[in-house]
Amino acid sequence: MTISIGDDINAATRSRHTTLNQLVLQFLPYSLPPHTSNNHLYALGISHFLPIYLAFESSLRAHGIRSNTSPSRIKDTLRALHIPQLERAEALVNDINTLLPPQHRDASPIHHPRLEAFKRHIQLSLASKPYLLFAYTWIFYMALFSGGRYIRSKLRTGFTTLSTSDSQHHLDELAGLSFWNYPGDADGEDLKIDYKARVASLSSELTEQEKADIIAEGVHIMDSLMEVVREVADTVPERAIALAEDTVSDSITQLKGPAVRIRPPWILLLRYIFPMEFMDLLSAATGIAVSRGPRHGAGTPMSMQVAAE
């Protein structure tokens, strides 16, 4: 009986998977109430993963559907592996467009070298060894059905406090959570079963060297993801500051006429204590008063008011 290459990937990456989960769960609460009053932190963080999905999904479509450069065995295998309904890049683009203004949607390559390096690695590796798509689809799709379900439940709970809608479907659209959802009553469980069955069946079509390459790539993916998550933690606070400044400037412009963009150099210190004191320091730096409400610590959203002069 052929062992599924997916099981081999899991065995080789188990310890890394645990570490990555711990990293994600360490930072996830800061994107939710009561630590934030909007969904910008989540949107800025998740936007870092769009280039990854775009890179390997475009390769999957190219090699699995219309490529004439891959060997016929590999092309047939990837065509059988490809389930279009599992693709997530389009949903993630829609979520980011829903949650963020245009000028804040892209993670700059200059300020995100680890992400950029990983994206280049994906493109180069899949161009020469397209069968490595087994590793990418297994890790990035199956993650949404394991830890991803937990993350989705936390996001739904947290974003409910930011929405006035009683409709869960409308909430998902409003909050930009379609990345985590699948159409149909099965919510993607049928797709997961189908995909895992395909991986198990197609594993016998791979050579021993290809299997070894796929397992090694799975390890590299997990290592790269840990680096990207750490980079997100380092860079998202500063991106959030820029987004808040734009929001503040827009508010002042509407209420008081042309705004003076305030950005003293020491505002960058926010990244070291963000987000617990973010709104307080932003208020001190910009003259925007922050009202927390009597029970902010229990989950009451914060609001911003322009301080009267």
Structural summary, described in words:
- With 309 residues, the chain is an all-alpha fold.
- It has helices at 5-27, 40-46, 50-66, 72-81, 89-99, 113-128, 133-142, 147-160, 168-175, 189-202, 208-256, 270-273, 278-286, and strands at residues 288-291, 303-306.
- The chain has a two-stranded antiparallel sheet with strand order 1-2.
- The radius of gyration is 22 Å and the shape is globular.
- The N and C termini lie far apart (77 Å).
Briefly summarize what is shown.
By secondary structure, the protein is an all-alpha fold. Helices cover 62% and strands 3% of the residues. Helix 2 runs antiparallel to helix 11 and helix 3 runs parallel beside helix 6.
List keywords for this structure.
globular; 309 residues; 3% strand; disordered C terminus; mainly alpha; 62% helix; single chain
Sequence-ordered SSE layout with sheet pairings:
Elements: H1 5-27, H2 40-46, H3 50-66, H4 72-81, H5 89-99, H6 113-128, H7 133-142, H8 147-160, H9 168-175, H10 189-202, H11 208-256, H12 270-273, H13 278-286, E1 288-291, E2 303-306
Helix content: 55-70%
> Spans with pLDDT under 50 lasting ≥5 residues?
164-174, 250-309
Task: Categorize the overall geometry.
Answer: globular
Compute the CA-based radius of gyration: 22 Å
Q: Sheet with the most strands?
A: 2 strands, antiparallel
Strand content: under 5%
Structural class: mainly alpha
According to DSSP, the number of beta strands is 2
Overall mean pLDDT stands at 78
Walk across the major sheet and give the strand order: 1-2
Please give the alpha-carbon distance between the first and last residues. 77 Å
SSE string: HHHHHHHHHHHHHEE
Please report the number of helical segments: 13
